[in-house]
Design brief:
Elements (H helix, E strand, L loop, with lengths): L7 H4 L7 H55 L9 H26 L2
Helix pairs in contact: 2-3
The chain binds zinc ion (ZN).
The site of zinc ion has 7 residues, from helix 2.
């Protein structure tokens, strides 16, 4: 309800051609917008806080998995002596690289 002090307040009526009513409406709309922005910010903050808290709770597991993957994929490659051995290792290495790339996002998503 947008009420001016021009007597229209008594009738609880917004009068389209009344400048005071229009000013009251404008101010009221601006205040509604300010309140909406404040509520949005509040809700965003609450959501961000909740997400941060959830992440904090899960952090130990994430860190454990990161350490685990670094250890698994950090194992030193064996040295191959024959062309067949080298070819086999290259295939295995490529597969491991792909696996590593698939596992990374799973841990990062925690
Ligand atoms: Zn008015």
């Amino acid at each position: 309800m947008y009420l001016c002090d021009d007597g229209h307040y008594e009738g609880m009526k917004f009068v389209r051609n009344c400048p005071a009513c229009n000013l009251a409406k404008k101010i009221s709309d601006q205040e509604d917008e300010k309140i909406r922005v404040i509520i949005d910010e509040f809700q965003t903050k609450k959501l961000e806080q909740a997400l941060a808290e959830r992440k904090a709770v899960r952090r130990p597991d994430k860190e454990k998995l990161q350490i685990y993957l670094v250890a698994v994929f950090g194992i030193e490659a064996p040295e191959m002596k024959t062309p067949k051995g080298k070819a086999a290792w290259e295939k295995i290495d490529a597969e491991l690289e792909e696996l590593n790339m698939r596992l990374g996002p799973i841990v990062e998503a925690l």
